[in-house]
Design a protein that fits this description.
Helices cover 44% and strands 12% of the residues. With 457 residues, the chain is of the alpha/beta class. The protein folds into 3 domains: 110 residues, no CATH class; 159 residues, no CATH class; 167 residues, Ribonuclease H-like superfamily/Ribonuclease H (Nucleotidyltransferase, domain 5, 2-Layer Sandwich). The longest helix is centred in the middle third of the chain and has 30 residues.
Amino acid sequence: MCKAWPDFFPNIIWRLGDGTSIRFWEDSWLDGFPQLSTHVPHNLLGNEISKSVADYVTKEDTWNWDNLHNLLPANILDHLRSHVTPIRDPKKDSLAWLVSANGEFSVKSAYVCLDHNQIECNQAVFSTIWRWKGPERIKLRFWKTAHNSLLTNIARERRGLALENLCPRCHQEPETGLHALRDCVVVKNVWSHLANGGIPPNFINSNLGTWIVSNLTRRNENWRLIFAVTIDELWKARNALIFDQHHVNPCGLVVSIKRRCLEINRAYKECSTFSSKILGDPYGSSLIRWQPPPLGSIKLNCDRAVHGVGRKAGCGGIIKDYLGGFITGFPCKLGQCSILQAELWTIFHGLRIIKDKGFKEDIIVESDSSLAIKFLNEDCNASHSCAPLINSIVELADMEQDLNCSHIYQEANQVVDAMTNLSFDIQDKFQIFNNFLHGIVFSLLTDTAAVSFYRNF
């Protein structure tokens, strides 16, 4: 463990509670910036470098921007804008494990940490295989190939099941999975026939993972199927040669591959026709529309967007009454943050406006982010990256009136989309509109008139 500590330590991060246990400059607590002291253009004074995160929060529970503007560069300040301030309650700061999605440590995630490059490559391969549309039998063959689990002659000799490890086709080189499916001279002849005599250099020179990904993601849909079927047929023909002494010549194998591709294409077309007859409308039979809240309630609809290479985020929300009338709306310009964090910021700002304006009606919050709603209804692990923001929302939502959070489809949330897009155009970070804007009039009328949409409209 001591030897591996240099690889482990950069993957440990603090999650904000009250911010008193975390050193602002020396500890890792801001995602993407392991130690803020290394990003300061000048040396910090002794009393400054020892301060905690809580020391940089004002009495109004906002970041002390006047002080921080003199200490941090613009890119970090932009990132800090989307980070919630510590909350003044008994919740303590906690450590989290960056490698896992939920922040909890596991042996599997530690292995990913130690062998990051290989795991990252494997994840790309397995994700590509998972998305490929084709027979499950062929997909299973891909899984085994990617895992180097094919029982090649190298593996058979190692287990005492074969006298030699040479390729049974060419008898020239040891039989690895890549040799059996691509590099053998006999197999190259098959690929050459299928590619009409022109095999590109990167087809032969790439490693196993790159080879699979590049061919399963080609724009030519027919080639993706040919490639997959060829992998399966080559391995079947190889097994027939070893176990049944049945030799299939390359031309016969090419014919078999093309015939099987035609059968699969025909089967999928028939299946698609059958499904459309059974299911009817491809968008589904249910219509989706915005529903007004019951009498005595108001509804907060939320949306978010993340644009550009810098991952600049924006959010927007609209509050309406039981008749569908516009009460207030807001766009908000966030810094750099994830889609989930942007959605949670929308809910936070919406509830803060409701509290500041003194509304006494029951509150319904609707979002098309199912994960955000799940976290608000069921809570999330303290080590999750969104935990500090969720804690702030829960603290803000501690009001007398009832609060209900529910998921809706995007088709019932269209009016907020226009408000969210405004967040990228406004000069100020945050704006509140007490009168509706001309750009959202049509969407507001659509909601009020109860116009319905098909899913994926």
